[in-house]
Specification:
alpha/beta; Arc Repressor Mutant, subunit A; D-Maltodextrin-Binding Protein, domain 2; seven-stranded mixed beta sheet; two-stranded antiparallel ribbon; 11 strands; about 40% helix; about 20% strand; disordered C terminus
Length: about 325
């Protein structure tokens, strides 16, 4: 093992990244002579010439370019190792597992995870899409560190804690050419009953339940967003669906969301992040919860948002 190899490789990396010994010295808060000596010593120990010094600016040799790539990987792994050790010392997990209800907006999740990765590069994330009941079970048993779920009357909060992080809007949508879209007046429940409904259901639909979002006449059931969207665009039927699923189609004009009348079903989906009650939030996991909440307004600038304490106790804004 070469003594001080990591420190020498960091100096080598700085020279390459900043183009000159002088600029590398400035960035590293070292003298130019120290940087020059370190590179010369590294070349001697490796028995490889790293730079062609016949130019105004040092230029990597072929061997130097290959060693630079290896050095980058080694230093990145070293930094990750040091970060993981730091997390362990503080008692934080270095791997987080998320169980995500299929209805949860992916734009919010991806934006939050992108910011989280920048803040905690040493933490490994696993994301699994689940149905509502499985998200609850994963979180309750601890097989998931966090669950992202829709808040409804079936939300059994035994052994779990959590907080509401945002809400999204439900819409009645159909193709622009669909008869419902061309009625010229607000659509009623009776109007909807006369046309086929396409139901987005990731698990079995309980037909005995009398509710607006599942009609008892003509309905088709699909289990994925893409099939639903394509059927809607073809005019096969209408759907009661979360805005984020069809936002792009509405923006393109392929689907429309006409005004409705006498429909009292809630138009909002309240969404929450949950975690095992025995594991209070702290550190990186708490930060991920914060980011999920912060990313809702960014993903839905025209949406409806409220501030909530844990489990829906409304906190007035402003």
């Amino acid at each position: 093992m070469i003594p001080n190899l990591l420190e020498q490789l960091r100096v080598f990396q700085a020279v390459v990244d900043h183009g000159t010994f002088t600029e590398a010295a400035r960035q590293l808060n070292k003298t130019v002579s120290t940087v020059s000596y370190t590179i010369a010593n590294l070349e001697t120990q490796l028995q490889v010439t790293l730079f062609d010094r016949s130019h105004k600016r040092p230029k990597l040799t072929t061997a130097g370019a290959e060693i630079y790539e290896d050095a980058e990987q080694l230093l990145r792994r070293t930094d990750r190792f040091a970060s993981r050790i730091g997390l362990h010392r503080k008692g934080y997990k270095t791997r987080l597992s998320l169980s995500v209800d299929a209805i949860f907006p992916r734009q919010v999740l991806v934006e939050a995870l992108t910011r989280f990765a920048a803040e905690f590069p040493a933490i490994t994330i696993t994301v699994r899409q689940r149905d509502f009941d499985t998200v609850l079970e994963d979180t309750r048993t601890g097989s998931a560190d966090l669950g992202l779920i829709r808040v409804n009357t079936r939300l059994d909060i035994r052994d779990i804690d959590g907080m509401q992080i945002g809400s999204t809007q439900n819409l009645v949508v159909m193709a622009r050419e669909h008869p419902l879209a061309r009625m010229g007046r607000p659509i009623t429940l009776a109007d909807l009953d006369d046309h086929r409904q396409i139901v987005l259901a990731r698990h079995s639909v309980r037909r005995r339940e009398a509710q607006f979002n599942l009609h008892r006449t003509d309905n088709w059931t699909v289990s994925d967003d893409e099939t639903l969207r394509l059927l809607l665009r073809k005019g096969v039927g209408w759907a009661y669906v979360n805005r984020h699923v069809v936002a792009q189609d509405i923006a393109e004009g392929a689907l429309v969301a006409p005004e409705t009348a006498s429909i009292r079903e809630s138009t909002m989906n309240r969404l929450a992040v949950i975690w095992p009650l025995r594991e209070p939030q702290s550190g990186p996991r708490q930060r991920l919860c914060e980011l999920l909440r912060l990313c809702f307004p960014a993903a839905y600038p025209d949406g409806f948002f409220e501030d909530f304490d844990q489990w829906g106790v409304h906190t007035p804004s402003g």
